[in-house]
Specification:
Helices cover about 30% and strands about 20% of the residues. The chain is an alpha/beta fold and about 260 residues long. It is globular and about 45 Å long. InterPro entries: Extradiol_dOase_DODA, Xdiol_dOase_suB.
Amino acid sequence: MTLPALFIAHGSPLLSVESSDYTQFLNQLGERLPAPKAIVVFTAHWDCPVPSVTMDEKHQTLHDFYGYPSAMYNIQYPAVGQTEIANEICALFSRSNLPYQPVMRRGLDHGVWVPLLHMYPEANIPVIAVSVDSLRSPQEQYDIGRMLEQLRHDHVLIIGSGGTVHNLRMLAQDDEPQDWAIEFDDWLGERLQQWNTRELFQYDKKAPHARTAVPSYGMEHIAPLFYAMGTADMSRTARRLFQSYPHGTLSLNCWQFGDGI
């Protein structure tokens, strides 16, 4: 069975303890999808130049954030790993002559476990985390994702976890969506639905408000979008499943790439 790939905005770590339309959507999304054999997550919070893959059979839960309510540091997401799938990822990278790094004892950062906490709260599906490289071009990020496309045809769910508009210095005091954030997401959305990679790969030059939506210090958050998109290169279909703007600018959206649900 072929599963779609997903891009999921993980927002703030507070998403782990919130109840909202978005967390309800994530819960329902997990229920709607056929249960995957494993989940592979390209996470914005693992940014390094060499593609890295978790090889652990058991994962620690990383609380890689500061200044949040103490209860959040007690949350555990005890998903196991899956060395067979991790080794397959490494083999696919090797087949494309892409240097890679198997990594032990890293744990799952909040870009991985926060959305999965709502989608699969029982933590009963194996998880493999894969790094992103925010300094690579969107074309390169897409091409790395494309190397893993065959996993989707083997009942593996691939997720890019990040954010399209993720500028924490521009958060508003209320939840009234800001025009500039909407305009950036709408530009991006039109080209995703058209699969217009020529313009998407130049979003930083062509999209309205691109430097505000994706600041130079936060490029790692949009990178997972292109990795996830690349894993659906054969079908080239994109559909937005959810959109909201808490704090006026923090884009919480979910995109489906490829067929499946």
